[in-house]
Amino acid sequence: MKLSNQKNENIASTQEEDAPIRFMRRKEVQAKTGLGASTIYALMDKGKFPRAVNLTDRCVAWIESEIDQWVAERIAARTASLSEV
């Protein structure tokens, strides 16, 4: 049975909204953003980067969707500045 395009889009949208929260450890965040550890923590202190979640006393992680959003915002800012030129 084949679903219409609109139904396929609704299903995909629902799956994204219902997607489980995924944690990323620091090395993965560094790989995804291109930032070093000290830069990540400095930006966090300034409120310019998503805050880490304490998993245990000695273990933190970031929520993947928040990191993805931060990356998307950087791309959008670049695109906006390029269109102003």
Walk me through the structure.
The protein has 85 residues and is α+β, with helices and mostly antiparallel strands. The chain has one domain (20-84): Recoverin, domain 1 (Orthogonal Bundle), CATH 1.10.238. It contains four helices and three strands, in the order H-E-H-H-E-E-H. It has helices at residues 5-17, 26-33, 37-45, 64-84; strands at residues 23-24, 53-56, 59-63. A three-stranded antiparallel β-sheet has the order 1-3-2. Strand 2 and strand 3 (59-63) form a beta hairpin. The longest helix is centred in the C-terminal third of the chain and has 21 residues, at 64-84. The model is unreliable at 1-15 (pLDDT under 50).
Could you name the key traits of this structure?
85 residues; alpha+beta; Recoverin, domain 1; 60% helix; 13% strand; disordered N terminus
Could you provide a short overview of the structure?
With 85 residues, the chain is of the alpha+beta class. The chain has one domain: Recoverin, domain 1 (Orthogonal Bundle), CATH 1.10.238.
